[in-house]
Structures are given as structure tokens and as C-alpha cells.
Request: fold
Amino acid sequence: MADQTPSPEQLTQVDYRPKGKSWLDPHVEFRKGTYCYSAAPKNLTYLGLPNPRQWQPFDQDWKLPPDWKDIILAGMKERLDRYRSFRLFMDICVRCGACADKCHFYLGSGDPKNMPVLRAELIRSVYRRYFTLAGRLLGSTVGARDLTEDVLKEWFYYFYQCTECRRCSVFCPYGIDTAEITMIGRELLTLVGCNINWVIEPAANCFRTGNHLGIQPHGFKDSIDFAVDELEEITGVRVEAPINRKGAEVLFVMPSADYFGTPHYYTLLGYLALFHEIGLDYTLSAFASEGGNFGLFTSHEMIKRLNAKIYAEAKRLGVKWIIGGECGHMWRVMHQYMDTMNGPADFLEVPVSPITHTRFDHAASTRMVHICEFTADLIRHGRLKLDVSRNDHWNVTFHDSCNPARAMGLIEEPRYIIRNTCRTFHEMPENTIREQTFCCGSGSGLGTDENLEMRLRGGFPRANAVRYVRDKHGVNVLACICAIDKATLPPLLEYWSPGVDVAGVHEFVGNALLMKGERDRTTDLRGEPFASAKEDRAHA
Amino acid sequence: MALTTVSAATRDRFLEEWLACTLGTYPEQTSRFLREEPDPFRNPVGHTLDVSLRGLTVELFGGFDRARVTAWLDPVIHLRAVQDFSSADAVGFVALARCAADRVAERGSQGIGPGALDVLGTRIDEMVLIAADLLDRCHEEIHAIGARAARRRVFVLERAQARAEARAAARGGAPRSAPRGEIP
Reply:
């Protein structure tokens, strides 16, 4: 046997450069930490979705139906006929590159297929091959390619790397909404049973119990009662939190993470304190116990199914209008789909604040107002007594959550609330906030543990801007109004910008709010001493 | 020390070469963007690489303070630990400094002399080892972050459950079953 030992000369000839790869090669490697696990069969079955089976993305055999290719192409044709926008987005891109460097996943990973134009090209190339004359005749010379299993796996890999944040669409001169292309891509994948559990399990739970965790009505009541108890321990004030109360003026709907997640929970305490203090006639619903809608990450049909409970509960309880809590994609659904999918809500009234009598005409159709709009209006009319010094331990910056900022234009109201409840506030650089805000990197159902490495890549541009204000201004808290943000920004900042906490805007309201009959408070809603209490202790 | 006599122009050439080699570890379409976009918020990866490699070059040709080298390496390792690199490729950019040094040395009298090249090589080797330690720490950090995130998800539920149990014990009964129902 020949001696395989390398010579000293060979040992010094080390090529340190990683192997390159052509972007035309559809093969993707499912490395741990960079993909989400597949949907469990029981969840697909519960929702009546196709091809429930045991499989994982790293398997060689995805156990696709024998006619999977026909199913995908038929699904594509159906959607091209149904959605004019989809056909338009397939045809009009001129590859100007304006979107290329706008995606946080591209900026964080450096993977060219995360350029929005190239991600869309993954599906556009198949459209060309099967639905255009040029593609059918000339094939790859006009950028067309066959639909193969490798291409399908590539779709799965990259369409579950897009958070549907729509930052790229802000810069597209043709108005192409790449998030909608991703949505169609995921719909097509769902037709052959290729979806992820972190989306499908919450959707199945939501369809069954009204919320993502599958919490049943008695569990929902226990959670709210616990929050009422804790708020009393902190403030000395016992508040009411009515559930399923018929005849209330307002139905309040929040993301379920508000009553079980941290730091979301402190936002819930803020809502409860606020509603009590202004004497709002409201009710929660144990069935509409979730504002979030993971249908948005599955299919248009699923959005409609999961959203239906909001108006149904409003009707059953006989309320006049609806307030929605701090949530991101919930507001994309409420603002852009709910009215046409499950409306018209003609049994409700145009929202009018019972405290300030402001009429929210912008919600004349949906009859649903964002809690930040409602609270900003209260502050504007001087209807809240606030002690801003109670938030002096926080040096705040604000992350515009993608959906409220870009899908509904809610940009000034949260800032107005923060400026009126906190004394120290610093903006991140202009090209990282407002309409240009960077995504947390975990939206659209990607916030799962097994995908953490990918999330840290995608969230880097956001965390980089946070780090900048931390270093320059000493910022120690990142405020946001999205439940997914509140769950996924803490890990992101622990990695990239340690020392910066995450909080909801109504946590600051709850801290600053002077409540009638409250005890001499020394701690915030987290049980942490106010800055003034810390100083007193230091002087003692 | 032979390295301190290396001219500023040569050090700049070394940095340029090293940066080019490192950017070359990214796909071609990306490396151009990482090199050319100057805005640190539009191009956080390129900016991080530029600032860190600049700092490391100063250390390589200067005092080579281990704490400062670690501080300059840390942001890049944090990046490459979560990008699509194997562990070897994640720290391999440090070893690419050798290629950069060789290329500059090839330019003769304007480059780096043989004595200086030996010292530089030793320092680069040491830097690779520091980078490997940092990478290891990043992986541990990612696991710890995942564990803390899981903890945050049950923080409220655990306290609520403890309270329910305490109340049930005071009544002499058992707490209600967990509120979450599973899909059968």
C-alpha cells in the first residue's frame, strides 16, 4: 500500500479558501440551525391539509405525492388566474437590483439567493418554463428551469428564510411585493405537504381553541386572574378583567403571548392598569383569545379561517367596536385582509373613544383600533396622570415592528407614547427605522429554536443598529409593539448587543401611570426598583 | 522587532490583500457589495470586517496585545459563527492573513522581509488559536441563549402554577390540571 503521508511541502500547501458554489445550482444543504422542522402529521390532519406524514427537511426522501409536480403546476396556474398581482409580479421585474441589498437575511448571511430579486427568481424561473412561450421554447437561455425535487427543496429552504417583512417592497420601483411571492410559494409547498411545525401547530391550536398555545377557556381565565393578582401586589389596586361579558362596549383582542410570554406579560399588566384607570367598559374573549394569525404564513384560505373568530366573537358578545393589542402580523391581517375576508362588520359601530370622544374614522370599515392609537389619543387629551420618572431606569430606543410600520403606517403613535412616559429616548439611524425598519429576523413563523443560527444571521442588521445606540447613548431597552419581536429580540440582543432589554410600549404606560388608590410604589411592573428607589437606598 | 520597521504603505497593502482574501470567502455577488457599500447600517457585515481587520493589522505589526487582538477578532467570529461556514472556514479567514503576507512579501524590497515574515507567521498562528477559542465560546453562547429563551417562555406559567398549587394546598385539595390541551 502506497504511503499516504503528505510531505512537508504538501503540508504547507493549504488552501484556506472555502469551496465556491454557483447560484444556478439548486441543491441546498439543510445544516442544523438553519431550517425549521417539518409539520407534525397530526397538525396537518387537524387542519385538513394534504399529505400528512413523518419526514424532515434533511431526509433524502421527502415522501412527496407521486403526482407532486402536477399538483404544484396546477396550483400555480390557479393562483396566476386568481391573483392578478401574482401574475404581474412574475412578469414585470426588470432586475434593476434596487431590492438586492435590502433584505436583512441577505445582509446578514451574504447568500445571494436571499436577495429578494433572486429569491423571487426561484419561482419566476419555473413560471417562465411552464407558463410563457419563450420559456417553453428557449428554456434556460431565457432564465427558465424545470421543476425538480431539488428546486422544490430550494423553495422550501428559501421561502422559509423570508420573514415577509416587506422591506424590499419599499424600494422596488415597480411595487413588487416579494412577501406576496413568498406567500404564494408557501401555499404551493403546502399543497404537497411541505410546511413547518412552528407555523402549522399554532394554526391547528388556534383553529381548535382560539389561540396558538391551545389554551382552553378555563386556562385563559386562570392566566388573566394571575395577572390581576400580580398587578394588585405591585400597585395595591384590584382591577377587573372581564371575560366573555356580553354587552360591553369594547372587545379587546391581544396576542396570546401577552398572557404567558416574557417580557410580553408586563405589557398585559400595562393594558389592565390602563383600562381600569380610565374605566373602560370592555371585555376579553376566551375564544378570540389570540390576535395573531399564523394562517398568514400558510395560505390565504387559512388566514380567513383563523381570523373569522374576531368578528364572530364581537357579534356574539354584542360589543360596539374592537381594540387590538401590541402585535405585528395580527395587524397586517386586521388592516389588509379582515374586512374583505370576513366583513363587512356592519353590526359594529365606527369606533369612538368613550373617554375623549375622538372618532377613529380611519377604522370606519374594520371597526378596530390599535391600542397605541387609543392610548396616544388619551395622552394627547391629557386624560392620563403619568409620572415619567418611574421609567428613569430605562434609556429607550424604538424598533418599528415590520407589519405595524409598513402594513398600516403606525409610526408616530408608539413614539408619542414613549416620549410621554419616558424621559430618555434615542432613535436608531434613520435608514434602519420607520418604513425602512429592519426585521427581527424571526417573523412569519421562523422564530423557532432549531432555526436560531439562521435567525441570528437575519437579525444582525437590526441588532447592529441597536448596538450603535447602546454604545453612543447608553440605550438599555428596545421598545417594540409586536409579540414575535418580544419573543425573539431578547435572544438576538443577547448575542449581538448584550445589556439591552426588550419591552412593550404599554409596559412603560403601566409603570408611569398614577392610579387612584395605589400604594406608594417602589417597583416597576417587573418588580424592579424605580431609579428613585435605588437612589434612596443608596443614600440610606 | 523587524515588524515595526515595515512601512505604513506595506501595512496598508497587507490589509488590502487580507480584506480581499476574506471577502473572497463570500459568494462573488456578495463580496463586491461588502467591499463597496460604505454605510455601516446598510452593510453591517462589510463594515465589521473592515473595522476589525484594520485593528488586527495594527496589532499584527505593532504590540500584538492578546486582549486587544481578542477584542478585534470577537465581532468577526460572532458573525462567521452564524453564517454559512463550517468551523474551519469560520476561523479560516485569519489564516488567509498568511496568503496576504506572502503576496506582499513577493514584492521584494517594498514588501515584508524574511525575518519579519517569520514573526508575522507566528502571530497569525496565535491569532488562529484565539479565533478557535472565540468560535467555541460563540457556539456555547448560542446554546445558552436558546436555553434562556425557553426559560422565558415558561417563566409566567411556572409562577402561575406555583401560586395555584399553594392555593390548592391551603384548601387541602389538588390544583386543577394544566390548562393546555393537546391535539390528540
Notes: Chain A has two domains: 41-195, 202-533.
